[in-house]
Amino acid sequence: MLLGNAYLLATFASKPLKLLSVMKTKLLLASFFSFVFMASANAITIRELILKTKPDRTPTMNEVPVPDVNVIGNAVVVDFAEETKDVFILVTDDETGQVLHQEVLSVDKNTTLYIDLDTSLSTKYNVDVETDFDSVYSQFSL
Question: Looking at the structure, do residues 16 and 70 belong to the same domain, yes or no?
Fold first, then answer.
């Protein structure tokens, strides 16, 4: 009888440990999946914009290349590979024409300009980049 009680005690004593182990496993899985969901919901997308020459300008073959323009999250990122003087950058709301960012600047070699569009309510935009040599634009949406 004593041996039987020891067996019963060992059997029932291990069940809470197994239950606790199962609960920990479920909690870890739930935490993992919620982390993956949050990470995918907050993922930042990077898109390169294809710049087109404005119809009123003839493309030129000059030594100063047109900058690369990308959309990263809610920001327009303009990368200048070469020193460029008098660059005009304009970001507008595509639907209303409202100017969201306008700037004239001179940049050094390997300069990156970030234009944050977090405060804008629009979803469709135009970006124009003009230099003494080229005038290019692109349309994009967030």
Answer: no
Residue 142 to residue 126: CA distance in whole angstroms: 11
Q: What are phi and psi of 83, to 5 degrees?
A: -60, 130
* 58 burial type by CB count under 10 A (0-12 exposed, 13-18 middle, 19+ buried): exposed
Which residue in 116, 128, 7 sits closest to 56, CA to CA? Answer: 128
Instruction: Identify the helix (H) or strand (E) that includes residue 112.
Output: strand 111-116
The model carries a pTM of 0.63
Are 56 and 67 in a shared domain? yes
In tens, the pLDDT along 81-96 reads 888 888 999 999 988 9
Q: Are residues 31 and 65 in the same domain?
A: no
| Domain shared by 117 and 82, yes or no | yes
